[in-house]
Amino acid sequence: MKNYFKKFVIMFVMSLVLTIGFSVSAFASDDGVIGIANLNNTTENSAKVGSILKDPEKGWKRYDDANNKIVYGSGWSSYNNGPNVYKGAYTHNNKTVGKALKFKFYGEKLRILTWTANDNSGADVKIDDKDYGNFSNCSNSYEGSYLFFEELNLPKGVHEVSLITIDKKYTVSKDNWFALDAIDIDSNGQLLPYDEYLTLDKSTLNLTKGDSGQLTATTTPAGAKVTWKSSDPSVATVDSTGKVTGIKEGQATITATTADGLTATCVVTITPNGTDPNPNPDPTDTDKIVNIAHAKGYNTNNAGGDVTIIFHGSADTTLSVVKTADVKEVWIGDNFTYTLVITNTGTKTAKAVVVNDPAPNHIDFNVSGVTTTQGSVDSSSTSKNIIVNVGDIPPAGTVTIKVPATVIL
């Protein structure tokens, strides 16, 4: 029997415009403290892991553990006792293994400072999913501003850091304490909000009356809470897990929303029982693929698709993102290439630009084949989501990213 395959017409959302607030006043609100002297007044930076570094050295900027851009999981609390503690307090866990804290920054070097004591254990350090291993903050001295970890050779760009408490009980104690006192990064860097992305595995869904289908939300960071809502519950309902049920003939939009207000949508079409929404198996039948690419810098909002745009700063720089493909029609199994062109159309340098491109329905990305004229492909990229850390784009600057893709059923 001759097999016919469905033919897809690719439609693109191309005119993504991103408004960026980059100005002196924007940086004035940054609460980091820039170092003015080196440890022991040396000419060059002289602090090493194990040093007590009460203030940041030259070329560094310090953020306190209480900064609201640092995300603590459950079981962390502030404590204000002991010598050399930066700003008089540190944040420690409740002696439980596997507790995490996370933060994001723009820069190329990092120092982590802790509180040290003889009942401390330590933490596992991860940067951009690279595991640097376990580090200890156990000592017979009781002091803050202890230089616990240092990395001086990161690529300039946006980095995500996580510290996870470990089980390393020393003979002097049966506890597993760990505490964060401060974070040091480049003096021209920035501690960033720990952002979240949201995508759905389907942009369209066809159901018959009485039938159900499942929508799956993917968030970055993983595990963020998602709520679901139908634009017309009389046509289609959705429960707390993303299960959609057809009620009557018609069309409704299912919206997934995170606690931070990010949204992703799927258009659901309900047909009467016995009616095939695509009745003709001939290749002339078509389906639509809608693809949205996101671009985000550390001094920008997150724009794209139906995501609500929130401005942080003056609107004096814009990025345009245009996405095209080298084909207009494809068959299942075909390979083709998406091209994304990101241009700074404003008058200020766009800082720490990150391009996030979730795959639409029926598309798998070839991660190893992705190329960019600037920056690098993030190690967390998958066949369903490509992330490129572009970095800074000057006024009139252009970056081109090519993403090979395969059409799947």
TrEMBL record:
Read off the SUPFAM superfamilies from this record.
Invasin/intimin cell-adhesion fragments
Keywords from the UniProt entry: Signal
* Ranges for domain BIG2: 194-268
UniProt KW Signal keyword: yes
Keyword Iron-sulfur tagged: no
User: Which positions are tagged coiled coil?
Assistant: none
The protein's superkingdom reads Bacteria
Q: Which Pfam families match?
A: Big_2, DUF11
Point out the signal peptide segment.
1-28
Name of the protein in its database record: BIG2 domain-containing protein
